[in-house]
Specification:
Length: 255
């Protein structure tokens, strides 16, 4: 196998990919030969990211929209007609709404569930239907979090959605394995992205409390994601891979 182009002939959808982890996953997929459909809710970010991936790495098209909206999810699944097929789906889109449990609002609660769970569930459903039609198998990857494994202050609603995504991966093994589709999740810990870097103390705080001495980079997460959706992982399914530099082993609070 040519490791430099191990995704030749593959077609991938990555949601929430205008920047950060999702963007890096798109870059690495395209660099390794995949045709990538990049989604973000922000139209400007989508276009900027697509242009960057195309110029630096390879084939990439953009489709801006809300990856939790059912009508838009169908557009995502059918848009692969531009590439002729769909083989990889990475449900990366999600939101984090911090809040104390005692005062957390129903509006915030249902917004987190709608995006993190509803969007991921129905994207996977639409994608699996498409992959079944093709008859050639594929890979689904959900974006969980270390908060699905370890309690984190002010993230009760977010954490429960991330734990639920790992259970979704487990349950789908029963539903989709017969179609040669494997389903896994990755659970990133603290990661230095554009959003987290805006907090000037983020890197130093997490470097102190992470056993390996630093927060993850988007590339750290993307490399793990690529493995789980590659041919090398075709017999791996129902697994949740924590990528956190050892933080969940000791779990000190950043607060």
């Amino acid at each position: 196998m040519n490791t430099a182009k191990r995704f030749n002939g593959q077609v991938a959808i990555v949601t929430g990919a205008g920047q950060g982890i999702g963007y890096e996953i798109c870059c690495q997929l395209a660099a390794n030969g995949a045709a990538v459909l990049l989604n973000d809710i922000d139209a400007n970010l989508t276009q900027e990211a697509v242009t960057s991936v195309q110029e630096k790495y390879g084939t990439c098209l953009g489709l801006a929209g809300d990856a939790a909206d059912l009508a838009f999810i169908q557009q995502l699944a059918t848009a692969v007609e531009k590439f002729g097929k769909l083989t990889v789906v990475i449900a990366n889109a999600g939101i984090t709404l911090f809040g104390d449990f005692l005062t957390y609002t129903p509006e915030a609660f249902y917004q987190v569930l709608h995006t993190n769970l509803g969007g991921s569930f129905f994207l996977a459903q639409a994608a699996v239907r498409q992959i079944i039609k093709q008859g050639s198998g594929g890979s689904i990857l959900f974006m969980s979090s270390v908060t699905g494994h370890q309690a984190h202050k002010n993230l009760a609603a977010y954490a429960m959605t991330k734990a639920a995504l790992e259970m979704l991966a487990k349950n789908l093994v029963i539903e989709v394995s017969a179609y040669h589709i494997n389903v896994n999740a990755i659970a990133p810990g603290a990661t230095l992205t554009e959003r987290t870097a805006a907090d000037g103390t983020y890197a130093s705080t997490w470097s102190l409390i992470t056993p390996l001495g630093r927060p993850a980079t988007p590339a750290d997460i993307a490399q793990a994601a690529l493995f789980l959706v590659s041919e090398r992982a075709r017999h791996i399914t129902d697994q949740s891979l924590i990528i956190d530099g050892g933080w969940t082993s000791v779990s000190p609070s950043p607060f």
